[in-house]
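Input record (Table S2, row 261):
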Amino acid sequence: MRLANRVAWITGAAQGLGEAIAHRLAREGCLGLTLTDLQHEKLQVVAQAIERESPACRVLALYGDVTDEAHVADAVRQTVQTFGKLDILVANAGVIHAAEVTEMTLAQWRWQIEVNLTGYFLCAREAAKVMKQQGSGVILQINSKSGLKGSYKNCAYAASKFGGIGLTQSLALDLAPYGIRVNAICPGNLFESPMWQETLFEQYARKWGLPEEAIRRYYEAQVPLGRGCTYDDVCHLVVFLASDEASYITGEAIRVAGGQL
Ligand SMILES: NC(=O)c1ccc[n+]([C@@H]2O[C@H](COP(=O)([O-])OP(=O)(O)OC[C@H]3O[C@@H](n4cnc5c(N)ncnc54)[C@H](O)[C@@H]3O)[C@@H](O)[C@H]2O)c1
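Output record (nicotinamide-adenine-dinucleotide complex):
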Protein backbone atom coordinates (compact mmCIF):
# COMPACT_ATOMS: atom_id res chain seq x y z
CA MET A 1 0.00 0.00 0.00
CA ARG A 2 2.79 2.42 -0.86
CA LEU A 3 0.54 4.54 -3.05
CA ALA A 4 -2.46 4.77 -0.73
CA ASN A 5 -5.16 7.21 -1.86
CA ARG A 6 -3.33 8.27 -5.02
CA VAL A 7 -4.97 8.81 -8.39
CA ALA A 8 -3.04 7.62 -11.43
CA TRP A 9 -3.48 7.78 -15.19
CA ILE A 10 -1.86 5.07 -17.30
CA THR A 11 -1.80 5.29 -21.10
CA GLY A 12 -1.72 2.20 -23.32
CA ALA A 13 -3.19 0.10 -20.50
CA ALA A 14 -5.26 -2.40 -22.54
CA GLN A 15 -2.48 -4.99 -22.64
CA GLY A 16 1.17 -5.71 -21.94
CA LEU A 17 3.19 -3.61 -19.54
CA GLY A 18 0.52 -0.91 -19.15
CA GLU A 19 -2.01 -3.50 -18.00
CA ALA A 20 0.49 -4.93 -15.51
CA ILE A 21 1.29 -1.45 -14.13
CA ALA A 22 -2.42 -0.71 -13.73
CA HIS A 23 -2.97 -3.89 -11.69
CA ARG A 24 0.05 -3.12 -9.53
CA LEU A 25 -0.92 0.50 -8.82
CA ALA A 26 -4.37 -0.66 -7.72
CA ARG A 27 -2.78 -3.23 -5.37
CA GLU A 28 -0.53 -0.48 -3.96
CA GLY A 29 -3.58 1.42 -2.72
CA CYS A 30 -4.53 3.88 -5.48
CA LEU A 31 -8.10 5.02 -4.95
CA GLY A 32 -8.66 5.77 -8.61
CA LEU A 33 -7.15 4.86 -11.96
CA THR A 34 -7.79 6.35 -15.36
CA LEU A 35 -6.82 3.95 -18.13
CA THR A 36 -6.67 5.05 -21.75
CA ASP A 37 -5.96 3.12 -24.94
CA LEU A 38 -7.06 2.76 -28.57
CA GLN A 39 -8.38 -0.75 -27.79
CA HIS A 40 -11.45 0.22 -25.82
CA GLU A 41 -13.12 -3.20 -25.44
CA LYS A 42 -9.94 -4.80 -24.18
CA LEU A 43 -9.43 -1.86 -21.83
CA GLN A 44 -12.85 -2.38 -20.28
CA VAL A 45 -12.05 -6.03 -19.60
CA VAL A 46 -8.82 -4.91 -17.87
CA ALA A 47 -10.73 -2.32 -15.84
CA GLN A 48 -13.26 -4.91 -14.65
CA ALA A 49 -10.50 -7.34 -13.67
CA ILE A 50 -8.76 -4.63 -11.61
CA GLU A 51 -11.97 -3.64 -9.82
CA ARG A 52 -12.60 -7.32 -9.00
CA GLU A 53 -9.06 -7.79 -7.71
CA SER A 54 -8.84 -4.45 -5.84
CA PRO A 55 -12.41 -3.44 -4.91
CA ALA A 56 -11.23 -0.24 -3.16
CA CYS A 57 -9.91 1.11 -6.47
CA ARG A 58 -12.29 2.70 -8.96
CA VAL A 59 -11.29 2.52 -12.62
CA LEU A 60 -12.21 4.89 -15.42
CA ALA A 61 -11.57 3.24 -18.80
CA LEU A 62 -11.53 5.70 -21.68
CA TYR A 63 -10.91 5.40 -25.39
CA GLY A 64 -8.00 7.75 -25.92
CA ASP A 65 -5.31 8.35 -28.52
CA VAL A 66 -2.21 9.91 -26.95
CA THR A 67 -1.52 11.80 -30.18
CA ASP A 68 -4.91 13.51 -30.12
CA GLU A 69 -4.85 16.75 -28.15
CA ALA A 70 -8.60 16.69 -27.46
CA HIS A 71 -8.57 13.06 -26.21
CA VAL A 72 -5.66 13.80 -23.90
CA ALA A 73 -7.25 16.94 -22.46
CA ASP A 74 -10.51 15.06 -22.00
CA ALA A 75 -8.81 12.20 -20.09
CA VAL A 76 -7.36 14.71 -17.62
CA ARG A 77 -10.67 16.57 -17.33
CA GLN A 78 -12.62 13.36 -16.64
CA THR A 79 -10.00 12.19 -14.13
CA VAL A 80 -10.29 15.38 -12.10
CA GLN A 81 -14.07 15.40 -12.41
CA THR A 82 -14.29 11.78 -11.17
CA PHE A 83 -11.51 11.58 -8.58
CA GLY A 84 -10.86 15.25 -7.71
CA LYS A 85 -7.13 15.14 -8.52
CA LEU A 86 -4.32 13.54 -10.55
CA ASP A 87 -1.21 12.41 -8.67
CA ILE A 88 0.62 10.11 -11.10
CA LEU A 89 0.91 9.91 -14.88
CA VAL A 90 2.49 6.79 -16.37
CA ALA A 91 3.11 7.59 -20.06
CA ASN A 92 3.34 4.01 -21.25
CA ALA A 93 1.67 3.91 -24.70
CA GLY A 94 4.30 3.14 -27.30
CA VAL A 95 4.72 1.59 -30.74
CA ILE A 96 7.58 -0.01 -32.61
CA HIS A 97 8.30 -0.78 -36.24
CA ALA A 98 11.77 -2.21 -36.70
CA ALA A 99 13.43 -1.85 -40.12
CA GLU A 100 16.86 -1.06 -41.53
CA VAL A 101 17.13 2.68 -42.23
CA THR A 102 16.87 2.47 -46.04
CA GLU A 103 13.64 0.49 -45.68
CA MET A 104 12.02 2.77 -43.10
CA THR A 105 9.23 4.78 -44.71
CA LEU A 106 8.47 8.34 -43.67
CA ALA A 107 5.04 7.22 -42.48
CA GLN A 108 6.57 4.54 -40.21
CA TRP A 109 9.09 7.08 -38.88
CA ARG A 110 6.40 9.68 -38.20
CA TRP A 111 4.09 7.18 -36.49
CA GLN A 112 6.74 6.19 -33.95
CA ILE A 113 7.84 9.79 -33.25
CA GLU A 114 4.20 10.86 -32.99
CA VAL A 115 3.10 8.18 -30.49
CA ASN A 116 6.30 7.70 -28.49
CA LEU A 117 7.48 11.31 -28.29
CA THR A 118 4.67 13.72 -29.15
CA GLY A 119 2.16 11.53 -27.29
CA TYR A 120 4.32 11.67 -24.17
CA PHE A 121 4.63 15.47 -24.52
CA LEU A 122 0.86 15.97 -24.81
CA CYS A 123 0.01 13.72 -21.85
CA ALA A 124 2.72 15.26 -19.66
CA ARG A 125 1.65 18.79 -20.61
CA GLU A 126 -2.01 18.24 -19.76
CA ALA A 127 -1.22 16.34 -16.55
CA ALA A 128 1.22 19.07 -15.49
CA LYS A 129 -1.48 21.74 -15.74
CA VAL A 130 -3.44 19.99 -12.97
CA MET A 131 -0.36 18.99 -10.97
CA LYS A 132 0.91 22.60 -10.94
CA GLN A 133 -2.33 23.73 -9.32
CA GLN A 134 -2.02 20.92 -6.77
CA GLY A 135 1.64 21.73 -6.10
CA SER A 136 2.51 18.04 -6.41
CA GLY A 137 2.65 15.17 -8.88
CA VAL A 138 4.75 12.47 -10.49
CA ILE A 139 5.23 11.93 -14.21
CA LEU A 140 6.85 8.69 -15.35
CA GLN A 141 7.63 7.76 -18.92
CA ILE A 142 8.07 4.14 -19.90
CA ASN A 143 11.08 4.56 -22.13
CA SER A 144 13.45 1.74 -23.20
CA LYS A 145 17.07 0.70 -23.12
CA SER A 146 16.87 1.88 -26.76
CA GLY A 147 16.44 5.42 -25.40
CA LEU A 148 20.00 5.32 -24.08
CA LYS A 149 21.84 3.37 -26.78
CA GLY A 150 21.32 3.15 -30.56
CA SER A 151 19.28 0.19 -31.67
CA TYR A 152 20.10 -2.05 -34.66
CA LYS A 153 17.52 -1.80 -37.50
CA ASN A 154 15.36 0.24 -35.15
CA CYS A 155 16.28 3.88 -35.81
CA ALA A 156 12.84 5.51 -35.48
CA TYR A 157 12.01 3.78 -32.21
CA ALA A 158 15.42 4.65 -30.73
CA ALA A 159 15.17 8.28 -31.93
CA SER A 160 11.70 8.61 -30.39
CA LYS A 161 12.89 7.15 -27.08
CA PHE A 162 16.10 9.25 -26.99
CA GLY A 163 13.80 12.26 -27.50
CA GLY A 164 11.73 11.10 -24.55
CA ILE A 165 14.77 11.34 -22.31
CA GLY A 166 15.51 14.92 -23.42
CA LEU A 167 11.87 15.71 -22.76
CA THR A 168 11.99 14.05 -19.32
CA GLN A 169 15.08 16.03 -18.29
CA SER A 170 13.56 19.30 -19.53
CA LEU A 171 10.15 18.74 -17.93
CA ALA A 172 11.91 17.93 -14.67
CA LEU A 173 13.49 21.41 -14.80
CA ASP A 174 10.26 23.19 -15.77
CA LEU A 175 8.19 21.45 -13.13
CA ALA A 176 10.54 21.12 -10.15
CA PRO A 177 9.47 24.52 -8.73
CA TYR A 178 5.91 23.15 -8.49
CA GLY A 179 6.80 19.97 -6.59
CA ILE A 180 6.39 17.76 -9.66
CA ARG A 181 8.97 15.04 -10.36
CA VAL A 182 9.57 13.61 -13.84
CA ASN A 183 11.54 10.43 -14.55
CA ALA A 184 11.94 7.86 -17.31
CA ILE A 185 12.15 4.09 -16.85
CA CYS A 186 14.15 2.17 -19.44
CA PRO A 187 13.28 -1.54 -19.51
CA GLY A 188 15.19 -4.27 -21.31
CA ASN A 189 13.43 -6.87 -23.47
CA LEU A 190 10.08 -7.89 -21.98
CA PHE A 191 9.81 -11.43 -23.34
CA GLU A 192 6.37 -11.97 -21.78
CA SER A 193 4.92 -9.01 -23.73
CA PRO A 194 2.58 -9.48 -26.71
CA MET A 195 5.24 -7.81 -28.86
CA TRP A 196 7.67 -10.70 -28.27
CA GLN A 197 5.13 -13.51 -27.80
CA GLU A 198 2.94 -12.69 -30.79
CA THR A 199 5.42 -11.35 -33.32
CA LEU A 200 9.13 -11.03 -32.61
CA PHE A 201 10.04 -14.60 -31.56
CA GLU A 202 8.20 -15.99 -34.56
CA GLN A 203 9.61 -13.41 -37.02
CA TYR A 204 13.22 -13.91 -35.90
CA ALA A 205 12.83 -17.70 -35.82
CA ARG A 206 11.60 -17.66 -39.42
CA LYS A 207 14.27 -15.18 -40.58
CA TRP A 208 17.17 -17.09 -39.04
CA GLY A 209 15.76 -20.63 -39.51
CA LEU A 210 16.06 -21.40 -35.77
CA PRO A 211 13.54 -22.61 -33.17
CA GLU A 212 11.94 -19.86 -31.08
CA GLU A 213 13.64 -21.20 -27.95
CA ALA A 214 17.05 -20.60 -29.57
CA ILE A 215 16.07 -16.99 -30.30
CA ARG A 216 15.16 -16.48 -26.67
CA ARG A 217 18.48 -17.98 -25.52
CA TYR A 218 20.36 -15.70 -27.96
CA TYR A 219 18.73 -12.58 -26.50
CA GLU A 220 19.07 -13.77 -22.91
CA ALA A 221 22.81 -14.34 -23.46
CA GLN A 222 23.23 -10.61 -24.14
CA VAL A 223 21.99 -9.76 -20.64
CA PRO A 224 24.66 -9.90 -17.89
CA LEU A 225 22.03 -11.12 -15.40
CA GLY A 226 21.06 -13.82 -17.90
CA ARG A 227 17.31 -13.34 -18.30
CA GLY A 228 14.73 -11.06 -19.87
CA CYS A 229 13.04 -8.18 -18.10
CA THR A 230 9.71 -9.00 -16.39
CA TYR A 231 6.69 -6.81 -15.81
CA ASP A 232 7.38 -7.06 -12.07
CA ASP A 233 10.94 -5.74 -12.54
CA VAL A 234 9.47 -2.61 -14.10
CA CYS A 235 6.50 -2.30 -11.72
CA HIS A 236 8.81 -2.30 -8.68
CA LEU A 237 10.55 0.80 -10.06
CA VAL A 238 7.28 2.47 -11.09
CA VAL A 239 5.99 2.12 -7.52
CA PHE A 240 9.23 3.37 -5.98
CA LEU A 241 9.51 6.40 -8.28
CA ALA A 242 5.83 7.24 -7.80
CA SER A 243 6.14 7.05 -4.01
CA ASP A 244 7.45 9.63 -1.55
CA GLU A 245 10.53 7.43 -1.04
CA ALA A 246 11.76 8.91 -4.34
CA SER A 247 11.04 12.50 -3.36
CA TYR A 248 14.65 13.61 -4.15
CA ILE A 249 14.79 11.92 -7.58
CA THR A 250 13.86 13.83 -10.72
CA GLY A 251 15.12 14.13 -14.29
CA GLU A 252 16.53 10.60 -14.32
CA ALA A 253 16.39 7.82 -16.89
CA ILE A 254 16.83 4.54 -15.04
CA ARG A 255 17.59 1.26 -16.81
CA VAL A 256 15.87 -1.94 -15.71
CA ALA A 257 17.80 -4.15 -18.08
CA GLY A 258 19.78 -6.71 -16.10
CA GLY A 259 23.04 -4.84 -16.77
CA GLN A 260 22.56 -4.74 -20.56
CA LEU A 261 23.74 -1.46 -22.07
N1 LIG B 1 7.95 -5.08 -25.00
C1 LIG B 1 9.22 -4.76 -24.75
O1 LIG B 1 10.14 -5.60 -24.84
C2 LIG B 1 9.56 -3.35 -24.30
C3 LIG B 1 10.87 -3.07 -23.91
C4 LIG B 1 11.21 -1.78 -23.48
C5 LIG B 1 10.25 -0.79 -23.46
N2 LIG B 1 8.99 -1.07 -23.86
C6 LIG B 1 8.01 0.04 -23.82
O2 LIG B 1 6.97 -0.31 -22.92
C7 LIG B 1 5.76 0.33 -23.32
C8 LIG B 1 4.65 -0.71 -23.40
O3 LIG B 1 5.06 -1.71 -24.32
P1 LIG B 1 4.33 -3.12 -24.47
O4 LIG B 1 5.35 -4.13 -24.80
O5 LIG B 1 3.39 -3.33 -23.33
O6 LIG B 1 3.50 -2.81 -25.83
P2 LIG B 1 2.07 -3.31 -26.32
O7 LIG B 1 2.04 -3.08 -27.79
O8 LIG B 1 1.73 -4.66 -25.80
O9 LIG B 1 1.08 -2.26 -25.59
C9 LIG B 1 1.04 -0.92 -25.96
C10 LIG B 1 -0.38 -0.41 -25.78
O10 LIG B 1 -0.39 0.96 -26.25
C11 LIG B 1 -1.55 1.15 -27.01
N3 LIG B 1 -1.35 2.26 -27.95
C12 LIG B 1 -0.63 2.25 -29.11
N4 LIG B 1 -0.73 3.43 -29.72
C13 LIG B 1 -1.50 4.22 -28.92
C14 LIG B 1 -1.98 5.54 -29.02
N5 LIG B 1 -1.69 6.33 -30.08
N6 LIG B 1 -2.76 6.03 -28.03
C15 LIG B 1 -3.09 5.25 -26.97
N7 LIG B 1 -2.68 3.98 -26.82
C16 LIG B 1 -1.91 3.47 -27.81
C17 LIG B 1 -1.80 -0.15 -27.72
O11 LIG B 1 -3.16 -0.29 -28.14
C18 LIG B 1 -1.41 -1.17 -26.64
O12 LIG B 1 -2.52 -1.54 -25.84
C19 LIG B 1 6.06 1.03 -24.65
O13 LIG B 1 6.31 2.40 -24.43
C20 LIG B 1 7.32 0.33 -25.13
O14 LIG B 1 8.10 1.15 -25.97
C21 LIG B 1 8.60 -2.31 -24.27
